[in-house]
Design goal:
about 80 residues, 2 strands, mainly alpha, two-stranded antiparallel sheet
């Protein structure tokens, strides 16, 4: 069976690939750990953008979330 290397860790295929033994859960965790942090791309309801396109925040978002700089733990895929 041919497996496209670019789609081996695709979220739509990950459960099937682990179940079929193409990759291990450890491989998947390593892949997730290597992904870049896209936290700065996330929209917060209290932020606005200036005319130059720079993001401006009120500061309330960071105080409310209390998670500045924290990393989210990877979820295990559901295996049937």
């Amino acid at each position: 069976m041919h497996v496209d290397e670019n789609k081996k860790f695709d979220r739509r295929n990950i459960e099937k690939n682990i179940k079929n033994g193409l990759i291990t859960f450890k491989d998947y965790e390593t892949f997730l750990a290597g992904l870049p942090d896209a936290n700065e791309k996330m929209y917060a309801p209290g932020e606005t953008f200036s005319e130059t396109g720079e993001k401006e925040t009120t500061g309330k978002e960071e105080a409310l979330s209390g998670r500045k700089g924290s990393k989210k733990k990877a979820n295990k895929p559901r295996l049937k």
